[in-house]
Amino acid sequence: MVVVEQQIRAHKSQTRRTVQLKRLLPQYELAQEKNLYKFTKAEKSVGDALAAIILILESPTADITWQKGVKRQLANLDRFIEGTQLFDKMNLTEEHIILISAIIDNVTIENSSLNQTSYYNAILTFYKWVKRILQYHTLLLEKVRPIHQKYKEIEEDVLEQDQKLILLDSKN
C-alpha cells in the first residue's frame, strides 16, 4: 500500500512538472525558433539536459549531439511537448536509467553563465523533470515490478490449485 502511495505521489509530481514545463515552453518557443539554428554549440549544461531528455523521449541509441539530435528534437516543439507528457508510457530499462543518470549528473545548474533567468529556469525545469522521471522509473523497477511479478505467480498458483480441486471434485 505504501509503494502504491509513493507511486501515486511520484506520478502527481511528474504531472505537476509536466504542466509547469508546458506552461514555460511557450515563453521560449518564439525565441528558440529564431535563435536555435544560430547556435553552433550550446553550453554544456544545456546540451547535457537536452541530451538526457532525448534519451528518454527517443531511445538509448538516439543521436544526442547538438547539431543533429537536439536541434531536430526542438525543431518540432509540439512533438517535443507531447513526448514529455507521455514519458510514463515508456518503460526505461535499468541500463537506460544508468545511461541517462550519467548524463544528467554532469549538468551544473549553478553555473554563472546560466544566471540569465530564461536559461536558468528552462535548464532547472528540464533537470528536475529528468531527475523525477529517473526516480519514477527506478521506483517502478525496484518496487512495483517485483510486486506485479509475485502477484502473477500467486495468480498462476491459484489457477493451478483450482484446476486440481475441480479434478478432485470430478473424481468424487
TrEMBL record:
GO terms for molecular function: dynein intermediate chain binding; dynein light intermediate chain binding. InterPro entries: DHC (IPR026983). Gene3D superfamilies: 1.20.920.60. GO terms for biological process: microtubule-based movement. One of its GO terms (cellular component) is dynein complex. PANTHER family: DYNEIN HEAVY CHAIN 1, AXONEMAL-LIKE PROTEIN, LOW QUALITY PROTEIN: DYNEIN BETA CHAIN, FLAGELLAR OUTER ARM-LIKE. This is Uncharacterized protein.
